[in-house]
Design a protein that fits this description.
The relative contact order is 0.14. This protein starts with a helix and ends with a helix. The longest helix is centred in the middle third of the chain and has 34 residues, at 45-78. The chain is built from four helices and no strands. It has 119 residues and is an all-alpha fold.
């Protein structure tokens, strides 16, 4: 099954929006972490940690990483790109690795960090 040229353009647009969410969310997390030491001195730490948790979960993970994985998979299945090229397989494997590490290693750590700062 193949999608039309217009469908490919829409899929590319959604994919690029997912990439922008992933990178933009990562930059937002970086900027929030820059203020972490100042937040500790001014009792803003719970707010900074809660904001980091929300940005990470909703922007980076759901809109960014999952969006990239789904649209990348749709590109491979519905267009002529397929999984024939090695760089596509590598890109998909790296994306899946990042999602798994973030979910099972970094996610629980961030949740616990947020719980500790809210106490």
């Amino acid at each position: 099954m193949r999608i039309s040229s217009t469908g490919q353009k829409w899929l590319k647009l959604v994919h690029l929006l997912a990439v922008a969410a992933w990178l933009g969310g990562a930059l937002a997390l970086l900027s929030l972490n820059v203020y972490r030491s100042d937040a500790l001195a001014r009792a803003w730490l719970p707010g900074v940690d809660l904001a980091s948790s929300r940005v990470d979960l909703w922007v980076v993970v759901w809109m960014g990483a999952v969006g990239c994985m789904v649209t990348g998979l749709l590109f491979s299945l519905l267009t002529g790109w397929g999984f024939k090229r090695g760089w596509i397989l590598l890109k998909y494997a790296l994306t899946l690795t990042c999602v798994l590490i973030g979910t099972f290693a970094l996610g629980p750590w961030e949740t616990r960090l947020c719980e500790l700062s809210l106490q």
